[in-house]
Amino acid sequence: MSVAASASTGRRVALWRVRRRMTQQVFADRIGRSKSWVEKVERGVRRLDRFSLIQQVAEVLRVDPAELLGADRLPQPDDGVAADGVQAVRAALACYDVFAAGPLGPAPDTVEVARRVEHAWSTYRHGDHPRLLRMVPGLLDAARQLHAARPGQSVVPLVQAYRVAALVLVKVGEADLAWLAADRALATAGDDRLLAASAVVPLGQALRGLGQGRLAMAAAIAAADRIAASTGGAASTKAAASTKAAASTEQRSVYGTLLLQAGLAAAGCGDRASAGELLKQTAEVARQVGDGQDYRQASFGPAAVDCAQVTAAVALDDPADAVDRHTAIVRRDGWLRLPAEHRAAYLIDAARAHLNAGDLVAAGRWLVEADRVAPAEIRCRPSARTVVAEIARSGPQAAGVARLATALGLTR
After folding, report:
1. Other C-beta atoms within 10 Å of 266: how many?
2. b vs e for 89-128, b when ≥16 Cβ sit within 10 Å of the residue's Cβ?
3. Pick from 123, 197, 219, 261: most CB atoms within 10 A?
4. What is the pTM of this model?
């Protein structure tokens, strides 16, 4: 990155910091740096020369990392569809039935709502985020109408509708809205410990998207401890309850998913010790559950943990470990049984690992493969567009990277 480019990036950081109404000191505190460091970045004296650092700054500023890199943006159909979908979801989440002037109308059929919820989850697993965003407003309306008419029969569909809404909103970079949807899911779940715990998964992801990794870790650990306590295990503030505490495969799956999320949150905070311990515990739970399960739409098992280890290594700025782990993963078949969304998201992390390790050709190759598996993971996710921009600007490129960069409007 040239000095001129560095200075331009610094000016963009300063511009977005002011727009977010943050002082240099507040901004420095949120990214764990000194005020002096921020001043040097904004003046172009210090470079943002690592992808993980660019992503961290962008997350705190709540912008697309490509904005900080200065990549020109061309209007794209996928961007427009996603933006329209987000607006519709925002409007749906802003509806409060308690203020309705009259009855909401006849309750939807319970079976039909359940079918629509399952269809939404299937769409998410296939990584079709624009389509899911179009589906969510109507799904939320139907699930809320059913809940108002038959509260005893409709808690699970409504929680699931909020959960899938939160997850797709995280994907498209709308962490604030995702937090709201996840919070609604948690409130609706009430005293159902397992259902509430499943709602903490998107809540933690939303908090991580907002740069609140410590809060995400605390929420996930507390929910995991609650599951352990409900099944007779001894809870611990470090989620070190016996992995045998979960009495059923479903409970183990949700429990393990929470530990996994806590481990990723710890890695995102740079807490290597906690991340290592939490993911070690997660691996033990995964061995009990096995691969090929989808309890509470978690897709939890040994393959998911293996992939999370790569993501954690990237977050901890250990690209060599991430690349080594990825090389071992792709020699096995387990990860290929993960949903398309999960595989594509993982491959983006693998591309990040190779990018940080300086292997641009391999980074581009895995990025193109992610686009083949689930194109919306590349087209709709800000973090993925950042990887495309970095590879396209650096070269040499794998076949298909230039096409991706052009399609996303990231070429000059």
Report:
1. 27
2. beebbeeeeeeeeeeeeebbeeeebbebbeebbebbbbbb
3. 261
4. 0.77
